[in-house]
């Protein structure tokens, strides 16, 4: 692990890695997003019950999946940062956090918008929505902790610790909320049938998930590049790069 | 000067120092209880004094109040030690820091959590809680308040070096309190229906064991970050 | 070894990095050829650190403070501490809460540790702050004892050392923005 990570401990190498990866992510994102949205929003058949309003799942489901995915990646980066003392991994944590928070917010907003026609209310205390809301709180906690520190070195490490504590708690929170929800299941919630989704809707959904993953990757990489440059702005390699144009 | 390692000596030194300080300024012990009492008084005033309704809401009220009142003491948990440099001395001591932290959290629980457990009958009376639920309330508080101290201490350790750490700490810690809240209130609810609630207690107990093992490590690394 | 330099040059920061509280941007601190981040417990055995913030609790008495410090470092706390407190000029003040003492006396409560430890390396940040002339001289006598016993001292001070130390080394940090 260390051997593999070691070269990227140097900021300039990590920066180059970002540059190499960025185009691939960008291409995947653009292609999948165009294909997925056109396919999902225009060509996929309408649901026999929900008509066209179900089409919000092509945004809601990918963002919900990515909200969890981004949190796990953030926590993995945090573990790497603390165990192997890699400052670049710390920066990755900071790069992912706002992106993850945005994706979570998108999942919440689209969930609420979907809930209105489905459940007749903008917000119901559905287990998954509640978990998602708590996830947003955890993201915001990491972000506000990071920004509360003046010393950015300490800030990065504090954010890493909180991310790890959060990821240990996340399954417990998720489980407890699921359990709480089945206990209190009110009459308002009518979950739509959970029978397997039709292939004509499944494939555009998959494409959209890949598109979202790519998009999160692109934004994170750009943010990571910025964070690296910001921290390393006094170092010679940054100056060289700027002078070379 | 000869050094002789005794983990018990360290634990008791840190534990008894915090207790001694708390008893010298009694406010530290009395204020959380008063706060808890006042919060509980506010609920009947806000939602109406109807006994059935109060009994129905009592578990939730008691636990939300417990969550908030443990937050009061948390802010002070490491603050004095941070400002007077004791924290540095504790880190530079050759004893493992997690053990020191364990002693401090234990003291925090004795100062803020234990009084709540002991006062439960009074709160139960005020909220018209059924007698069958009283035991459940005491047991959940007994298992749950140490958990709150452990989880909260992580937030306290992360924010102790910050100017306005108090509010931020609440933001970090309260979401992590949710499982405790859910299982504890559900245990009380179940007990008031005269059903078995040992499952919820077992989960709280399991979480407490995990917290005793894992939290001191997280708190120690948080404190090291704050001191640096 | 004395660390010198103007305010803001980074003396305290450097001391804190050497004591293992803060991490250096680059590089590592070695003690007896071992990295202190990896072997911190062993390093801590031989370290005595007294910083700007001395680690004295002002609610507790001088005696309680000293006893607490002994306990958290694994020293015998049941020994008779009165003679040592008397020696450092705290006679009659042993059982007064430290907040009632003057700044110089509070500093002495922290400095008692110099007579009560077996550490080889002392890291002291401005140890003479608030001390009177006799206190400064008394402290330097203790420094000589420690050095003769084979110990090392790393300190910062703005005062000139009045005692002559034969192998004093001074490292001066320059202020750089």
TrEMBL record, chain A:
InterPro entries: Cyt_c_assembly, Cyt_c_biogenesis_CcmC, Cyt_c_biogenesis_CcsA/CcmC. It comes from the Bacteria. Its main location: membrane. GO terms for cellular component: plasma membrane. The chain crosses the membrane at residues 21-44, 56-84, 91-113, 133-149, 161-181, 201-224. Residues 15-184 form the Cytochrome c assembly protein domain. Keywords: Cell inner membrane, Cell membrane, Cytochrome c-type biogenesis, Membrane, Transmembrane, Transmembrane helix, Transport. The keyword Transmembrane helix applies. GO terms for biological process: cytochrome complex assembly. GO terms for molecular function: heme binding; heme transmembrane transporter activity. It is a multi-pass membrane protein. It is found in: Cell inner membrane; Membrane. Required for the export of heme to the periplasm for the biogenesis of c-type cytochromes. Belongs to the CcmC/CycZ/HelC family. NCBIfam families: ccmC. This is Heme exporter protein C. It comes from Pseudoalteromonas lipolytica.
TrEMBL record, chain B:
Coiled coil: none annotated. It is found in: Cell inner membrane. GO terms for molecular function: heme transmembrane transporter activity. It comes from the Bacteria. Pfam families: CcmB. InterPro entries: Cyt_c_biogenesis_CcmB, Cyt_c_CcmB_bac. Keywords: Cell inner membrane, Cell membrane, Cytochrome c-type biogenesis, Membrane, Transmembrane, Transmembrane helix, Transport. One of its GO terms (cellular component) is plasma membrane. It is a multi-pass membrane protein. The chain crosses the membrane at residues 29-47, 53-74, 106-127, 133-160, 167-188, 200-223. One of its GO terms (biological process) is cytochrome complex assembly. Belongs to the CcmB/CycW/HelB family. PANTHER family: CYTOCHROME C BIOGENESIS B-RELATED, HEME EXPORTER PROTEIN B. Required for the export of heme to the periplasm for the biogenesis of c-type cytochromes. This is Heme exporter protein B. The gene is ccmB.
């Amino acid at each position: 692990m260390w051997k593999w990570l070691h070269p990227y401990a140097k900021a300039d190498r990590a920066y180059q890695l970002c540059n190499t990866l960025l185009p691939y992510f960008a291409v995947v994102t653009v292609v999948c997003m165009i294909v997925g949205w056109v396919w999902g929003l225009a060509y996929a058949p309408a649901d026999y019950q929900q008509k066209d309003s179900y089409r919000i799942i092509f945004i809601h489901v990918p963002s919900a999946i990515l909200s969890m995915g981004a949190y796990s990646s953030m926590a993995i980066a945090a573990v790497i940062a603390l165990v192997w003392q890699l400052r670049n991994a710390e920066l990755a944590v900071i790069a992912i956090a706002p992106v993850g928070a945005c994706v979570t917010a998108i999942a919440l907003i689209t969930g609420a918008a979907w809930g209105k026609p489905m459940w007749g209310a903008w917000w119901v205390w559905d287990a998954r929505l509640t978990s998602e809301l708590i996830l947003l709180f955890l993201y915001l906690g990491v972000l506000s902790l990071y920004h509360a520190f003046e010393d950015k070195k300490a800030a990065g490490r504090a954010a890493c610790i909180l991310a790890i504590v959060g990821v240990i708690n996340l399954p417990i929170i998720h489980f407890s909320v699921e359990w709480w929800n089945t206990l209190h299941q009110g009459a308002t919630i009518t979950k739509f049938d959970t029978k397997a989704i039709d292939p004509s809707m499944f494939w555009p959904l998959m494409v959209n998930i890949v598109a979202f993953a790519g998009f999160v990757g692109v934004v994170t990489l750009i943010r990571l590049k910025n964070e690296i440059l910001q921290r390393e702005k006094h170092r010679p390699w940054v100056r060289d790069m700027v002078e070379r144009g | 000067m000869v050094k002789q390692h005794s983990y018990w000596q360290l634990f008791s030194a840190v534990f008894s120092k915090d207790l001694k300080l708390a008893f010298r300024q009694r406010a530290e012990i009395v204020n959380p209880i008063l706060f808890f009492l006042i919060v509980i008084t506010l609920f009947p005033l806000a939602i109406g004094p109807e006994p059935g309704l109060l009994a129905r809401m009592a578990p939730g009220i008691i636990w939300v109040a417990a969550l908030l009142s443990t937050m009061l003491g948390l802010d002070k948990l490491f603050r004095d030690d941070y400002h007077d440099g004791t924290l540095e001395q504790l880190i530079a001591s050759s004893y493992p820091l997690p053990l020191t932290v364990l002693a401090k959290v234990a003291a925090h629980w004795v100062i803020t959590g234990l009084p709540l457990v002991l006062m439960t009958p009074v709160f139960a009376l005020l909220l018209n809680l059924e007698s069958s639920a009283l035991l459940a309330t005491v047991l959940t508080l007994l298992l749950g308040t140490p958990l709150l101290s452990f989880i909260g201490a992580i937030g306290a350790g992360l924010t102790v070096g910050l100017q306005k750490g108090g509010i931020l700490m609440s933001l970090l810690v309260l979401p992590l309190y949710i499982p405790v809240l859910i299982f504890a209130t559900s245990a009380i609810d179940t007990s008031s229906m005269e059903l078995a609630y040992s499952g919820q207690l077992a989960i709280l107990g399991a979480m407490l064991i995990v917290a005793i093992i894992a939290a001191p490590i997280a708190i120690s690394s948080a404190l090291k970050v704050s001191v640096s | 070894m004395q660390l010198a330099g103007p305010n803001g040059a980074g003396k305290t920061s450097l001391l804190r990095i050497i004591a293992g509280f803060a991490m250096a941007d680059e590089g590592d601190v070695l003690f007896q050829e071992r990295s202190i981040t990896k072997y911190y417990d062993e390093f801590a055995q031989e370290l005595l650190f007294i910083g700007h913030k001395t680690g004295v609790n002002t609610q507790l008495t001088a005696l309680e403070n000293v006893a607490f410090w002994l306990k958290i470092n694994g020293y015998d706390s049941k020994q008779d501490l009165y003679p040592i407190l008397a020696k450092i000029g705290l006679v009659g003040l042993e059982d007064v809460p430290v907040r009632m003492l003057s700044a110089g006396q509070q500093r002495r409560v922290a400095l008692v540790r110099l007579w009560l430890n077996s550490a080889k390396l002392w890291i002291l940040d401005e140890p003479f702050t608030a001390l009177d002339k006799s206190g400064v001289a008394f402290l330097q006598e203790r420094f000589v004892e420690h050095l003769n016993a084979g110990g090392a001292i790393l300190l910062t001070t703005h005062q000139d050392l009045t005692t002559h130390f034969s192998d004093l080394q001074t490292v001066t940090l320059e202020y750089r923005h």
